[in-house]
Structure formats: C-alpha cells, structure tokens
Amino acid sequence: MRTDTVHSSAEQTRDLAYLCAQKMVKIADIELGDFPLLLAPMEDVSDPPFRALCKKYGADMMYTEFISSEGLIRDAWKSVQKLDIYPEERPVGIQIFGANIDSMRLSAEIVERSNPNVLDINYGCPVKKVTCKMAGAGILQDIPRMVHLTSEIVKSTSLPVTVKTRLGWDDNTQYIVEVAERLQDVGIKAISIHGRTRKQMYKGEADWTLIADVKNNPRMHIPVFGNGDIDSGPKAVEYKNRYGVDGIMIGRASIGYPWIFREIKHYAATGEHMAVPSIEERVAAAHQHLHHAIEWKGERLGILETRRHYTNYFKGLPGIKDYRLRIVTSDDVSEIDSILEEIKLRYRDYPMEELTNRMKLKREKV
Ligand SMILES: Cc1cc2nc3c(=O)[nH]c(=O)nc-3n(C[C@H](O)[C@H](O)[C@H](O)COP(=O)(O)O)c2cc1C
Question: How far is the CA of 227 from the centre of ligand 1 (A)?
Fold first, then answer.
C-alpha cells in the first residue's frame, strides 16, 4: 500500500478545510465565499424590498443606499428609515456619506446601533451637490483629509469599516493604488473600487486595470472588489480572471434584473448560460417587491414609491406599456395583483430569451 499518497479521511477533511480557508474571502470575520458578488449601494434602488430579491437570487453581500450623515444626526426621517435592515439579508453594510468629521463620527455611532455587519463610507458619489461639499467623490481632491476622516470613523465604531470609491478625481489624479494602501493602514477592512474617475461620472467604459494594480500591490491584504459595467456571466468571469479581484460589485445590471447574481454564479460554475427568468418568476418578483414595500412603508407609500421599480421586471416586453399605465395609476393593491396575473397570462408563451438579449444590447449602449 502506498502510504505516501493515500490520505486518511481525517487528513482529507483537514486538507479540504485548508483549501476552503485559503479561498474564503472575508471582511473582518464575515465569510463571503470564494468569489462573492455584492449588490452595489444605489440611491432609491437598494432598499430592503429590492435587497431581499437580490439576496434570494444570489447576492452574497449587500449595501444600503447612501445615507446622509447630516440627515442622520438631525434624525431626518428619510435618512433614519434607510437604516432598516432585516435578518434574512445579512451580511449587509450601511453606507454613509458626508464631509464633516463630527457628523460622520456621530453617524457611525448611530449606524452601529442598527447593528449592520459593516459600515461603508461613500467616497464615490460624483453628484455636484455632494462633491462641492467635499463629500462623496469630492474628497478625492484631498487625500490626506480622506485618510484622516476614515481613520476617525474607524476609531469611532466597533463595526468593520469598508470604503467604496473611484479611481481618482480626474485623469490626472488617479491615485487609487496609494489611496487604497493608506486607507488599509488606517484600518478599513475591504475596498470596492468603481473603475471610473469622478470626472467621468458614468461615461465611457470602466477601466479595471488600476483596480488590478490595487489588488496586485503586495502590501494589500484586505479584499478588493471591482465595480463597473459587469452585466453578464461571461463578463464577470473574464474580469475575475483578467483582473484578479476578490469579488465583484454589481449595480445597474441588477435594476429590474436581480437574477443577474444567479446567472453569473451559474456561468462561473458551469461555463453555460442559465435560462432567463420566466414570466411567472418576473411576476412573482414584482409581487414580492410590491408587497414587501407595503409591509415596510405602509400601503399608500409602498404603492406610490415603488411604482417605477416593480414594473422594471417587465421592461422591454412588447405591449407592456398599457399594463404598466394601469399599474402605476392604481392605488388598490388587489387591483394591481390582478393586473400582474393578467400579465402572467398574456406573456405566458412569449420567448423571454429575446427580451433579455434586447435588454443586454440596450445596456451596452449606456
Ligand atoms: C441609480 C443609482 C444610484 C446610485 N447610488 C449610489 C449610492 O448611493 N452609493 C454609492 O456608493 N454608489 C451609488 N451608485 C453607484 C453604483 O454603486 C456603482 O458604483 C455604479 O453604478 C457602477 O457600477 P455598475 O456599472 O455595476 O452599475 C449609484 C448608481 C446608480 C445607477
């Protein structure tokens, strides 16, 4: 018997555990699997009803919409409501933004009371009314200030702190490799990088080469998540292999299509495309989104504020406009439910593959 190659089952279990441990991506103690897919924070999109769907369809970690630190410390209802998280969606991060150190510190304390898994700082928002106050991506114009603010936030909370940011302010200030290292040195536990500068806003193609440079920096030991333009299994797998990131964060491709997470996972595991969701699944998603929103915000607000979201699940279906108009003008839940049933019957035999292909083509033009 060749004792040198035959391992006992205890040894095999140990080896397997070792391999798993090697591959496991972790934010502090939070285990996220070997190649996690994260739902990006998105204002007016990544709320609890939408997050629940993304979780159901494979997101490994999710972030709330960004929350204003100034709003939080003033107890503004709109900001406070965004702190709501549900046990089934964990692990979840709450994202805050702001420029004032005291407000950000106080906000970190407020966030901690909501007990998320992670506190995320937004250093990526490109909108002028945010950047002109040196918040969001605005702080990319002053890296020492960014490092100091981060350090103060890390000190003020026992939560793991993560950062989401961009490559730099503009083409001439793409300091992300140095920035990531300095933020790691003051204690952040993971970084998500959108491969655009602030100046680019959402234009052009995301450039992942600098994200790869951050990952390849031998001093980096925290997870580096890549973000920007991922909208299919093949692209996710190609970018994973080409840029070596620890995981991928997905934003726009999930809007109206939370199935993107399971499709990427399926493709990564098998190299094959998964069948796109049937009309029954789309109707079920719209139904769940609406009813969860009603549960969360009450009937009137739930119906009003989620109108444009749950109708996203039917985007591109020929002739859907009439149904959409009826849905978005109805104030009555049971009426909306029956319109959803009508949609299910009407599109029962529609070739969904065509719709998905058209949606992908449209996204490529964005
Ligand atoms: C509607 C919308 C809202 C967004 N809101 C936020 C936000 O609150 N916080 C944040 O860090 N990024 C926000 N972003 C940026 C996304 O998180 C993400 O970085 C960006 O969309 C690029 O990723 P994608 O190509 O996968 O969409 C938002 C993007 C969109 C489209």
Answer: 9
Q: Is this prediction's pTM over 0.90?
A: yes
50 assigned to some structural domain: yes
Looking at residue 8, the DSSP 8-state letter turns out to be: P
Q: Which two tokens stand for residue 12?
A: 């095999």
What sign has the CA pseudo-torsion 125, 128, 130, 135? Answer: positive
Label the pairing between strands 30-31 and 26-27: antiparallel
* Tens digit of each residue's pLDDT (9 = 90 or more) over 42-72: 999 999 999 999 999 999 999 999 999 999 9
**Three-class SS state of 5:** coil
In this prediction, residues 300-319 reach a mean pLDDT of 92
Closest CA to 213 of 202, 224, 227: 224
Q: Which residues have any ligand 1 atom within 6 Å of their CB?
A: 40-43, 45, 65-66, 95, 122, 124-125, 164, 194, 227-230, 250-253
Whether 256 and 294 share a structural domain = no
**90 Cβ contact list (under 8 Å, min separation 6):** 117
Q: Is 26 inside any structural domain?
A: no
230 CA: nearest ligand 1 atom? 26
Between the CA of residue 22 and those of 9, 15, 98, 218, 236, what are the distances in Å? 20, 10, 36, 17, 21
Domain assignment of residue 71, given as a range: 32-270
Same domain, 251 and 284: no
